[in-house]
Write a structure and sequence with these properties.
The longest helix has 5 residues. The protein is mostly beta strands. Strand 1 and strand 2 form a beta hairpin. The relative contact order is 0.27. It has one helix and six strands; from the N terminus they run E-E-E-E-E-E-H. It is 5% helix and 37% strand.
Amino acid sequence: MKRSVFEDETPIAWTAMPRHAPVVGADGSEIGTAESVLGDQNEDIFHGLVVRRHDGRLVEVTAARVKKMTAHHVLTDLDPAEAAALTPYHRR
């Protein structure tokens, strides 16, 4: 049975995710780094992440695509093509 990426790392709450944590796809390839968390702390609702790509662009990863957060990584279920096509982030 194939081990999942970072399965030995302990999950953390979305409110504790460290800034600049590497964000990785389902295959373990790095998508970018977490710049900020999108959510409502008062209501404890996680909406997603703003991720800085290696080319400097900011993109949004929705909460539904985030599968695990640890003190060292954010694991998504994105394949390389989906990661390349992420929606640009625009502050609301």
